[in-house]
Amino acid sequence: MNLRRLHHIAIICNDYQRSKKFYTEVMGFEVLQEVYREERDSYKLDLSFHGEYLIELFSFPNTPERPSYPEARGLRHLCFAVDNIEEAKQQLNDEGVETGEIMIDPHTNKRFVFFEDPDQLPLELYEL
């Protein structure tokens, strides 16, 4: 197998319009394509960042909640790189997104902070 790169991350949300606004207006992703699949009563939103296709945002009716705390088995969180952690944290806070305290990775001495998307999906910013 010759893996070349990560192609995309699929996220299922509860409130499609709220999550679409979060990922486009707060996080800054660009809409590549938006499709409503009537037979599934489901939206599929393809999002890119700096021209790179990255996230598929899905909506489905009556989705079960994802256990996050205590930490559940499976994908732990998504992490996005930033140049300035304080500035990025402040921008999230200005948009009404609560963040944790900035912490330092003891192995790299790089700073990071956790926050959540509208469905409590754990997200992280990591300073380059």
From TrEMBL:
Q: Which residues does UniProt assign to the signal peptide? A: none
Q: Which GO terms fall under molecular function for this chain's record?
A: metal ion binding
Keyword annotations of the record: Metal-binding
InterPro entries cross-referenced by the UniProt entry? Fosfomycin_Res_Enzymes, Glyas_Bleomycin-R_OHBP_Dase, Glyas_Fos-R_dOase_dom, VOC_core, YwkD-like_dom
Q: What region holds the VOC domain?
A: 5-128
| Source superkingdom | Bacteria
This chain belongs to which protein, by name? VOC domain-containing protein
Q: What is the lineage of its organism?
A: Bacteria, Pseudomonadati, Bacteroidota, Cytophagia, Cytophagales
